[in-house]
Amino acid sequence: MLRLQTSDAHRDLEDKLALLSRPSDRQRFLAVLERFHGFHAVWETAIRRRSRYAAFHAPRSRLPHLRRDLAALGRTTGEVSRLPLCREAERLVSDDAAALGSLYVLEGSTLGGQVIARELAGAGWLPSGGLTYFNPYGPRTGEMWRGFRAWLSAQDADDRAATEGARRTFRLLQDWVAA
Fold it and tell me: CATH number for the domain including 108?
C-alpha cells in the first residue's frame, strides 16, 4: 500500500537528487552525506525520544554509517558536529502512524542505496570500504527489508496517516538534501 501511494514522491526525490547521474563527483556526494547527516541527527533522536518504535529502529540507525563515511572523506568530528541540522525532521515522528511512514521511507532507501553503492564502486575517490550509508546492511539488505515489511504489517496504524507521514518524509528529504 505505502509503495503504491508514495511512488510519485519517491520518483520525485530520486529525480531531484540524481545521485546516479554523477557518481564520479566526490564533492557532490560529500555535500549529500552532510545533508543526510543533518536529517538523521534530528530524525533519529526524535525516533529514540518520542516514538514507541525506538527499540525496533536502534539496530537500524544510519548515523554511525554517516559519521564513518564523512570521516573517511576527510571531515573531522568537530566539522561533523557543526553541520546544519534539519530541525523539521522531528515533526516526522509526531505520532505513531507518521513515524511508521517515515520509517518506511528510510528503510526503503537501503534498497536504492545498493544501486548507488554499485555505481560508486568504480569511482577513484571512494574511500576504502565504500560509503556505508548507502548500503548499511551489505548482503543482508534483502533480509532486513523483508523483516521490516513483516514488522510494518504487524503494526496497527491508520494507513492514510502512515502514507501522509511517508509523503512528508519524501518531501522533506527532497527539500533538505537537494538544497
Answer: 1.20.910.10
Low-confidence ranges of the chain (pLDDT < 70): 23
- Digit-coded pLDDT (tens) for 136-163: 999 999 999 999 999 999 998 889 999 9
Assess if residue 35 is contained within a domain.
Answer: yes
Amino acid identity, position 52: R
Locate cell 537500524: which residue?
60
Give a yes or no: residue 83 inside a domain: yes
- Give how far Cα 90 sits from Cα of 41, 94, 166, Å: 10, 7, 14
Q: Has residue 9 been placed in a domain?
A: no
Rounded to whole angstroms, how far apart are CA atoms 42 and 24?
A: 29
Q: What is the pTM of this model?
A: 0.94
